[in-house]
Design brief:
single chain, 151 residues, alpha/beta, Rossmann fold, 25% strand, FMN_Rdtase-like_dom, Flavodoxin family protein, Flavoprotein-like_sf
């Protein structure tokens, strides 16, 4: 049976897009077998999407020191319907912050702790244009969370 990695993202800028594409490339690496990668824009996320997944990657810009309104809306939509059924599932986070991503990281850590999700790999926080190393960190994030869902 295939495991499902759900990538929940808000991708309003070229920098976020570059990070998103690197995460997807890592998650879909040919060496990772038995994992289906499903992409959902944060504003279209449903509780059914989250319940059907075995792990998650979250991607957001930091806006005014907080997660995007789109990702906040996604969490508001799924929090209680998924609260008891998604505990102990792994997640990763990539975040693009032009300045001060700390508040956004704190928000995600707090919400995911409430859901009982388990941080699978260090968060990737990028300011400005992602460097080659930061793009590689995004690739590794996608690959790491996907690999944890293999068989």
């Amino acid at each position: 049976m295939m495991s499902v990695l759900l990538v929940i993202h808000h991708t309003p800028s070229p920098h976020c897009q570059e990070m998103f594409e690197a995460v997807i490339a890592g998650a879909t690496d040919p060496e990772i077998e038995g994992v289906e990668v499903v992409r959902r824009a944060a504003l279209t996320l449903s509780p059914a999407d989250v319940l059907a997944a075995d792990g998650y990657v979250l991607g957001t810009p930091a806006n005014l020191g907080y997660i995007s309104g789109a990702l906040k809306h996604a969490f508001d939509t799924i929090y209680y319907p998924c609260l008891d059924s998604t505990r102990d599932r792994p997640f990763g986070l990539y975040l693009h912050a032009n300045e001060g991503g700390e508040g956004a990281v704190r928000a995600v850590d707090s919400i995911t702790a409430g859901l009982g999700w388990v941080k699978a790999t260090p968060h990737v926080v990028v300011s400005g244009k992602p460097s080659r190393e930061q793009v590689e960190e995004c690739w590794n994030l996608g690959a790491t969370v996907a690999a944890q869902l293999m068989g």
